[in-house]
Design brief:
Number of helices of chain A: 13
Strand content of chain A: 15-25%
Enzyme class (chain A): transferase
Largest interface: A-B, 48 and 39 residues
Strand order of the largest sheet of chain A: 2-3-4-5-1-8-10-9
EC number (chain A): 2.7.14.1
Helix content of chain B: 55-70%
Structural class of chain A: alpha+beta
Oligomer: heterodimer
Protein name (chain A): Protein-arginine kinase
Catalytic activity (chain A): L-arginyl-[protein] + ATP = N(omega)-phospho-L-arginyl-[protein] + ADP + H(+)
CATH superfamily of the largest domain in chain A: Glutamine synthetase/guanido kinase, catalytic domain
Order of helices and strands of chain A: HEHEHHEEEHEEEHHEEHHHHHH
Structural class of chain B: mainly alpha
Radius of gyration of chain A: 21 Å
Number of strands of chain A: 10
Strand content of chain B: 5-15%
Radius of gyration of chain B: 29 Å
Helix content of chain A: 40-55%
Family (chain A): Belongs to the ATP:guanido phosphotransferase family.
CATH architecture of the largest domain in chain A: 2-Layer Sandwich
Amino acid sequence: MTLESFINEAISPWMLEDGPDKDIVMSSRVRLARNFADQLYPTSGNQEALEEVLQFIKKNYTQQEDTEQNSISFIPMNNLNMIEKLVLVEKHLISPHLIKHSDHAAVLLSENEQTSIMVNEEDHLRIQVYYPGLQLKKALEEAYYLDDWLEEKADYAFDETKGYLTSCPTNIGTGMRASIMMHLPALVLTKQINRLIPAINQLGLVVRGIYGEGSEARGNIFQISNQITLGKSEEDIIEDLESIVNQLVEHERMARVYIYEQSEISLEDRVFRSYGTLKNSRIIDSKEAAICISNLRLGIDLGIIENISENILNELMVLTQPGFLQHYANKALRSDERDIRRASIIRERLNLKK
Amino acid sequence: MECQECHERKATLHFKHIINGQETKISLCEVCAKKKGYLSYPEEGYSLNDLLSGLFQKDGLNLSSAGTTKSNQSQELKCPSCGRTFSEFKKAGKFGCANCYASFGSKVEPILRRVHAGNTKHTGRIPKRAGKYIQQKQLISSHKEELKQLIEEEEFEKAAVLRDKIRELEKENHQNKEAGDNT
């Protein structure tokens, strides 16, 4: 496989499209949790019920297009090998939970990978829609469209006062989790993020790092999502989230200007050192890679580095994950072997001039 | 004993390695142990699930301290359609089916309040196809509010029009409900 075709596989087509504030907001996602009224939940562990739900979806929902005429296909988890599953997880199209319960699980995936519907995750259905940049409203509209389509042939578990009934009490009500993925290097560099996170948490929103463990934000990438699903409408939740994200975008922009003006040379030094590391290293672990990729992207955004695609952050963050490295190598790799592969794939990518 | 790594904090964890028959011992504080990779956490759901079931457990404790008879009852509480007991629910933090809410009744309310900042009532989307009856019902009640307002403002002509509209909607919705109940 050539690196070009491999990158095409790593990057979902929707990621390359333009979106508002795309230099800071990497993606918007809306997820709806839904269950059918007269089947036990996947959490009950009842194998018959799970199989019935799976067959029902397979029979009734394989022929469909989203609003932009992307066809949606049905992929049973058992048709995939372990590395293929891991790749879907690293692209955030399915959850680790779905892999662990593969036997009766499936995913309905759209051609451009913008929408994925997990079947028999913790709930019968988990509808996920991604948009590039800050476009939560659009993502919600698309999710509603799929929601209505799925509800046409079977009744949902819905209660007039409690809303959509989900297996976990934290999702009950709207069943909606809206989240934004943001690259905030300047807020981290100026340490403002430490002040902002607790403030955001107090507003019923959750901030956490992704690609890292626990609260650590690897590569300065943060995910911000709503915590509360009951008592507020979907539209209100999204509006609140968007207004916070807009403020963060503004703060990040100001911080970028600030660090640039404070010391252009030390910022350039940081960016070019990272560029040098990525271009020349022969062994690199995922943590160091994430830091360098983040610095490189900041350099591109600020015009310090030219002639490299701004999609580099999205691309390399996915490409350098364990599943992808093993997929590219076409075999299982130990962690020290992965560090070598990671260094070489990054070097190759940077030589691709685009 | 101080931590052999940072020499600042107290060592609370002691590890013994045996490699090729050679034994080495190391004593670390929790922070350094984590950093050095001696401690690992389950990759999935440690934070939320465990925190949640912790919250639910607390309810259980409150109940048992209020009286033993009550705690016995809570153990017997069981969802008839999926068989999940309330204590199983508390442990896993998950319901087993759509009827669990009704089965566990008032015990679920405080949990929802705690998780959702005091809210207990859904105000968002309603299923498009099956929810017509509910949608209409909500429309009727918002019309009724308007009607009250109109009467207070002595806009009787407008009020009369709205009243007729409400009657019509109510009649229509009654049929909707019956149709809905039959499916």
